[in-house]
Amino acid sequence: MCVPNKEDLKRRILEEGHNTWYSVHPGGTKMYRDLRQFFYWDNMKKEITEYVDKCMTCQKVKAEHQRPVGELRPLEIPTWKWNSISMDFVMGLPLSDSKKNAIWVIMDRLTKSAYFIPIHDTWAVERLAQMYVKKII
Description:
- The mean pLDDT is 87.
- This protein is an alpha+beta fold.
- It has five helices and three strands.
- It folds into two domains: 7-61; 85-136, no CATH class.
- The longest helix is centred in the N-terminal third of the chain and has 13 residues, at 7-19.
- The protein starts with 6 loop residues before the first helix and ends with a helix.
- A three-stranded antiparallel beta sheet has the order 1-2-3, with helices on one face.
- The chain has helices at residues 7-19, 28-35, 44-54, 56-61, 125-136; strands at 85-90, 102-108, 114-119.
């Protein structure tokens, strides 16, 4: 049966297919498979998925089907400055006058001091190492 584009009618079909005592809150895929045997409307699968995602009962009860993560282990506390660093890149910046469009952030974990080195996003590792040495020394 082709369902007309009437939100109230589609909502009633979704409620009947998901919330009744004989349907027992199926997930989006199962509900789509069940309903597509009898009904059709544009963007049906997307609307079913959105409806199931908004169901408070499903959010509370449904279990995650992912492997549990391993034991969390904190990083060791550094004993001297610049012995332990973290690095990140800020990419996608507009090109500067000096032809640089990214920032390389190097941060000391102990003192929380940081270097912000302007770079170009296509530079090789060797060039980054040269920039690091120039900045530190």
